[in-house]
Amino acid sequence: MEYNKQRTMLTVMLIIIMWSCCYSHAQLSSDFYKESCPSLFYVVRREVQRAVTRERRMAASLLRLFFHDCFVNGCDGSILLDDTSSSMGEKTAGPNNNSVRGFDVVDKIKSRVERLCPGVVSCADILAIIARDSVLLLDGPGWSVKLGRRDSTTASFTTANSGVIPPPTSTLDNLINRFRAQGLSSRDMVALSGAHTIGQARCVTFRDRIYNESNNIELAFALSRQRSCSAASGSSDNNEATLDIHSPGRFDLNYYRQLLNHRGLLTSDQVLYSGGSTDSLVVSYSRSLNAFYRDFVRGMVKMGDIKPLTGSNGEIRNNCRRPN
Questions:
Q1: What angle do CA 316, 321, 324 make, to 5 degrees?
Q2: Partners of 29 in the beta sheet?
Q3: Spatial distance between the Cα atoms of 176 and 234, rounded to a whole number of angstroms
Q4: Other CB atoms closer than 10 Å to residue 167's CB: what's the count?
Q5: What letter does residue 147 receive in the DSSP assignment?
Q6: Cα–Cα distance between 126 and 106 in angstroms, integer?
Q7: What is the pLDDT of residues 65-92, one digit of tens each?
Q8: Residues designated catalytic
Q9: Could you say which DSSP state residue 150 is in?
Q10: pTM of the predicted model over 0.85
């Protein structure tokens, strides 16, 4: 009897130890590459800085890549995979086609990192680092990036097209539900939407708003945007406008102040301040840069935790555009 009891306890202890080992191995950590690639952060920051110096807008594009990657089956670098003769990737899905950019910058960074630490750093982790660095380089907040993700071997055109990435025409309820499905709160959603303090949008994404939402848009603002975006589809479809009209090259709180004046460029921007449940958050962020930065950083860290591949799952791609 005593022997059986001891054997049972030993078995339970072994299970706990094995579970703890696997669980801790699956966790992300900011010092994941401390020994295996100690110069990683320096190399990535240098290349991001060069890219942003050449084109300031690139910071917004690189940040957006991380968001669009994480919302489709987790932060696994799947958005970077090219289409093949046998499968369609995520680059040509509706939310990404002729929209997401910066792939060449990622390629250059991956090439530099591979020369430094071959076969060590995942493309998924590179996306996480460049998102942080892009914000920092436009005078935004910094944070400790958790690392240890591995890369997927497949991408999903179908999932990317399924609505998991909220469209620019989203209602407030749709935004809340889409973010909640990823484990992100309404507060996270409003704070992460503040990334629109940098970057641009194409005419096709805001045409309906500037012509058909007269009850929730400042007239002068709508008229100014109509100058480069005609009411009918055509040659102006790809004309771009800044999401933040006051300081598009700086990561600040003017995006929220713009919403208070009904100058949100996208429908999905203005619904954050339109008499709904998130109005108070917009007001709070419009008044306090510290509050915005605090919640934005928390949201970015949480988003980076969405279904990462770790341990023996996935792979470390040699080339971000294709599986090994």
A1: 40
A2: 147
A3: 33
A4: 15
A5: B
A6: 8
A7: 999 999 999 999 999 999 998 889 999 9
A8: 68
A9: B
A10: yes
